[in-house]
Amino acid sequence: MAIQALWDVPAPAKLNLFLHVIGQRDDGYHLLQSVFALIDWCDALHFECRSDGALARHDLGPALPADDLCLRAARALQQLSGSHLGADISIDKRVPWGAGLGGGSSDAASTLLALNRLWGLHWPRERLLPIALSLGADVPFFIGGRNALVEGIGERLNPIELQVQWLAVVKPAQAIATAGIFGSPLLARDTEPVIVMDFLADAQLQQKLALGYGRNDLQAPATSLCPEVTQVAAWLEARYGNSRMTGSGSAVFARAGAGNQPVATWGSEELPPHWVGRMCRSLVHHPLLEW
Q1: Could you tell me the pLDDT band of residue 206, with boundaries at 50, 70 and 90?
Q2: Long-range pairs for 252-257 at CB < 8 Å and ≥24 separation?
Q3: Is 190 in the same domain as 144?
């Protein structure tokens, strides 16, 4: 019997443990090196199959843009596959947007994976990757399903094993437009690249990443556009002794320990007004890896 619905499909957020800008292409795209780590802060998506071919999105939480990445992902898969089926897509948005956590990209990836199953396409992940890249630089990572050293403009993935750790993640009220950061004169574009094979083979890799290897080259231009990033970083630094912005911001994270419990936590009442945050655990792999 064909699948008619898929409920509670997770779309996990990610953190950039470091993010280096190592150059810029002639077409203006920046060349990056970063380690992406999946975390257990997730959106939840629900999919119901439609026989009329229509695609509709329903917001169970905050209102999203009319033509968001999920609808664009669904439309692209429908057109390329020639499927005559459609879907009602309901999104329980829990991961804050404009945060550098990849929430919209993760929603798009989970949409591709879910509709691939719901519509009975059975495409391998490799066939979904070109669609993913056309939607945004972070989407291929979520299709890949594993923590990874990411290169290029996001399309080159080198899966890596990461130690499970606790990560305190806080986003201030303000979001940051990515275009403003990449256009900033404060952005360094010449960080020395790591040698990928040497990096992946380094026996001390886990320790380096756990202790805060590298930096986020986007943090300096981000703080010039959003002073709250500096305030969040200081708030986390005072509690955990470390902090770093993720992606293009404005969320900031701190390593808060490994094992069964973080070294310290906080209640929501301790966060300044309009900040949102939670204690997260890193994931060994994407919850939909077996899809």
Answers
A1: confident
A2: 252/169, 252/170, 252/171, 253/15, 253/167, 253/168, 253/169, 253/170, 253/280, 254/167, 254/168, 255/165, 255/166, 255/167, 255/210, 255/212, 256/165, 256/166, 256/167, 256/168, 257/165, 257/166
A3: no
